[in-house]
Automatic annotation (TrEMBL), chain A:
Residues 7-77 form the Transcription regulator PadR N-terminal domain. Pfam families: PadR, Vir_act_alpha_C. InterPro entries: Tscrpt_reg_PadR_C, Tscrpt_reg_PadR_N, WH-like_DNA-bd_sf, WH_DNA-bd_sf. Residues 168-200 are annotated as: Disordered. It comes from the Bacteria. Residues 91-166 form the Transcription regulator PadR C-terminal domain. It comes from Micromonospora parva. This is PadR family transcriptional regulator. Residues 174-183 have a biased composition (Pro residues). Residues 185-200 have a biased composition (Basic and acidic residues).
Length: 200, 244
C-alpha cells in the first residue's frame, strides 16, 4: 500500500491539514505504521502535482488544509476495487535467508529456524497483548490491523515448523548436493534440507 | 532451582521413560520449568516432543521416572493416590480437547461435580458452580444438558468446571479444539482472565496464534526444552517499537 492512498482515503472524510492527516493515519493503523510529518507533506505535494488533491486557503492559524479532487476520488475508488497483487510485495527475506543458510557451509539451519521461530513467536505474543488491551468498539480498525499481523506471524511460524519437519524427515542419505544457483529462493526444497542433514 | 518459592508449578529435572532397555522411550529428558501466579506458559513442539506427557506429569495424572514435580510447593511424589486425587480435584483445573462432560448431568451439575466429589455440600457446590458459569458467560444455561449446547458453549462449561472453586493451576491441552477462530479466541480470553486474576497456567498447543496469549513460550523437542521466548516488554515499548 502507499501512504498516498491512505491520505486520499482520509481526505475523503473531509478537508484536513498535514498534522491532522498524520494523526488520523496513525489512529486508523493503531500506530503500527508511524508516519513523520515530512512524509505527509512530500506525499501531499505529489498528490497535488498529480491533481488528486488541492490546497485550500490558509487558516488564520497558518494551517493549510487540503481537499480531495474528483480525480482523487476516482483514484481512491480504483485502489479499493483492485486487489493487492502478491508480486508487488517485497521479497521474503526470511525465505531467502533460509535458502542461503542451507547452502552456506558451517551454518546450523536448525538454529536459524529456531531463533526465527522464537523471535516471531515473541512478536505474536506482543501483538496478542496489544489486541487483548483494545476492546473498545472504536478499536475495531486497529484490532483488524493487529489481526492481520497476527495471522502473518502465525503463517511464518507454521512455515518454520514445516521447514523443521522436512529437515527431520529427510535424514542423511548421502553427500550434499551441489549448491543451487544463486537467487533460487525455494527454501522448502526438501532435497536441500536433506543436503543440510548430510553435512551435520 | 532457586527463587521458586512462590511457584504454583515447578518441574525439577523431570524425566519420563516408558519401557526399559533398548525399547525404552524417553518422553521427557530432564525438563525444568517454573510457573508463577499470574503467568501463562505455552508449550510448543512437534508431535511426539513430549508436550502432553509434560502436562500429564504437571497435573499428577502420571508420575515421573526421575526428578520432581511440585504443585504449590507440595512434591507430588510424596502423596499417596488418595492425596494426589484430592490435590487434583481441589487445586488443578484441566481443559482438554475432549470435553468429557457427562451427558446425563446438566451444565451446572457438571461444573459442581468435582466439588461434590471432594465433599463440598451440594448447595455450596452449586453456588460455586454458578459463579464459575457466570465467569464464562453462561449464567442462564446451567440447567441445559450438554447435547442442548453448542460446541462453543460446551467448551465454556468445561472451562467453568476447570476453574470452579479455588483452582490455582490450570492445565490446558489444545483447549480450542475444533472451535472456529472467534469462539476459540473467546476461550483463550477466559483462560487469560483467570490467569490475570492470580492463577498459573500451562497451555499445550501447536497453534502459534494460541500460544501468543502466553507470557512465555517454551519449545520442546525430543523431550528436551530447547528454547524460551524472551520476556515481554511494556505496552509502551511495544507501541514505540523501541525494543526491535
Amino acid at each position: 500500500m502507499s501512504i498516498r492512498h491512505g491520505l486520499l482515503a482520509l481526505l475523503e472524510r473531509g478537508q484536513m491539514y498535514g498534522y491532522q492527516l498524520r494523526a488520523a493515519f496513525e489512529e486508523s493503523t493503531g500506530s503500527t505504521w508511524p508516519l513523520n510529518i515530512g512524509q505527509v507533506y512530500t506525499t501531499l505535494s505529489r498528490l497535488e502535482r498529480d491533481g488528486l488533491v488541492r490546497p485550500l486557503p490558509e487558516s488564520e492559524a497558518g494551517q493549510r488544509p487540503y481537499e480531495i479532487t474528483d480525480a482523487g476520488r476516482a483514484d481512491l475508488a480504483l485502489w479499493f476495487a483492485t486487489p493487492i497483487s502478491r508480486t508487488d510485495r517485497p521479497r521474503d527475506e526470511l525465505a531467502i535467508k533460509l535458502a542461503l543458510a542451507l547452502t552456506t557451509p558451517g551454518v546450523d539451519v536448525r538454529s536459524v529456524v529456531q531463533a526465527q521461530r522464537s523471535a516471531t513467536m515473541r512478536a505474536l505474543q506482543e501483538l496478542t497483548r496489544l489486541k487483548y488491551g483494545s476492546n473498545r468498539p472504536e478499536d475495531l480498525p486497529w484490532r483488524l490491523v493487529l489481526d492481520s499481523m497476527v495471522f502473518q506471524a502465525e503463517a511464518e511460524v507454521r512455515w518454520l515448523d514445516h521447514c523443521e519437519t522436512s529437515l527431520v524427515r529427510h535424514q542423511p542419505s548421502g553427500p550434499a548436493p551441489p549448491a543451487p544457483p544463486p537467487g533460487d529462493a525455494d527454501a522448502r526444497d526438501a532435497a536441500r534440507w536433506a543436503g543440510e542433514e548430510a553435512r551435520r | 532451582m532457586s527463587g521458586a518459592d512462590d511457584a504454583v508449578l515447578e518441574l525439577r529435572a523431570v524425566h519420563r521413560t516408558h519401557g526399559t532397555g533398548p525399547a525404552a522411550v524417553h518422553a521427557l529428558r530432564g525438563v525444568s520449568l517454573v510457573v508463577r501466579p499470574g503467568e501463562l506458559v505455552a508449550v510448543m513442539g512437534p508431535s511426539g516432543s513430549g508436550k502432553s506427557t509434560l502436562l500429564a506429569l504437571a497435573g499428577g495424572l502420571d508420575r515421573p521416572t526421575g526428578g520432581e514435580v511440585r504443585v504449590e510447593g507440595q512434591p507430588l511424589g510424596a502423596l499417596d493416590r488418595r492425596g494426589l486425587a484430592q490435590l487434583r480435584r481441589r487445586r488443578i483445573g484441566y481443559i482438554f480437547q475432549q470435553l468429557n462432560l457427562l451427558g446425563s448431568l446438566s451444565a451446572l451439575e457438571n461444573v459442581a461435580l468435582p466439588l461434590e466429589l471432594d465433599g463440598t455440600s451440594g448447595r455450596r457446590a452449586r453456588a460455586l458452580a454458578m459463579t464459575a458459569l457466570t465467569e464464562v458467560g453462561l449464567p442462564a444455561l446451567g440447567d441445559r444438558f450438554p447435547d442442548q449446547l453448542s460446541g462453543g458453549q460446551q467448551q465454556r462449561v468445561a472451562i467453568a468446571r476447570a476453574l470452579v472453586g479455588e483452582r490455582r493451576l490450570v492445565l490446558a491441552d489444545e483447549p480450542t479444539g475444533a472451535l472456529d477462530s472467534q469462539t476459540g479466541e473467546a476461550v483463550l480470553h477466559l483462560l487469560r482472565r483467570r490467569i490475570d486474576a492470580g492463577a498459573a497456567g500451562v497451555l499445550v498447543t501447536h497453534e502459534a496464534r494460541h500460544a501468543g496469549w502466553a507470557d512465555r513460550v517454551v519449545f520442546l523437542r525430543d523431550g528436551v526444552l530447547v528454547d524460551t521466548t524472551a520476556p515481554l516488554g511494556s505496552v509502551e515499548q511495544l507501541l514505540s517499537g523501541s525494543e526491535r
